[in-house]
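Exercise 7.
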Amino acid sequence: IDWNDFSDLSDVVPTLSHVYPNGSADVNEFQAAGGTGFIIRELLDAGFMHDDVLTVRQGGLREYTREPSLAGASITWHDTGASRDESIVRPVTQPFSATGGLKLLEGNLGRSVIKVSAIPDDRHVIEAPARVFDSQEALHAAFNAGELDRDVICVVRWQGPQANGMPELHKLSPPLAVLQGKGFRVALVTDGRMSGASGKVPAAIHVSPEAAAGGPLAKVRDGDRVRVDAITGQLQALVPEAEWAARQADTLPTELREGNRIGMGRPLFTGMRRSSLTAEQGALSWM
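Solution. The predicted structure, written as tokens, is:
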């Protein structure tokens, strides 16, 4: 995956994050308005998807742009046609927003992606002192102890494909959402994986290269001022350049390394983790 591609699409793609702009449409209304068939067709016709990609359907992706209907006792398939409710889905020529739901971030902390579609407008830029964690559990412990009741950017490292296989970090969102609800300016920076779980909290995820591969997150220290800027696309530790260049990167703690090797079949994948590419390269281990 090259996240630069999303910059090219941001002004035209009708992202699914805007399918329910007022929070009022459910999945049945989405389907009735055109559904995934409409979205796929719009993306294909605009050149944002490849229609030669093989699928389980003989005709490839183009077959997924059609929908069934009954003609007597027979099922017929036809194109989804125009949107049947433009308050739910719109064509690429009339997007809900001038920007898309994903943004590439770059800086001295690496490259990452941030989902901005659900983030309040006044939270697209967060600058605050860092608090560094080595696990989800460590962040939860600090939250429960009241140590995060302030403006803070939580850096959760050692969560990438080489470190522990890049599990879903779904436990991080609730405590950060609570802090944001209290009025604090908070954000998450991690080399780990989150799907759509970040919600309304600014989250720079899939940071590449990961800390376990010597990535810059291994240099961050508690108290470093960090800037997450979804407007300019900046992911930066605001540390003097000479100091940052001279700073020694931490290494994956022995207890974490050993713990990541056992349980749930993990010994089988040790070799794959060792040779895994970055998250933005698909975390592939055979190239």
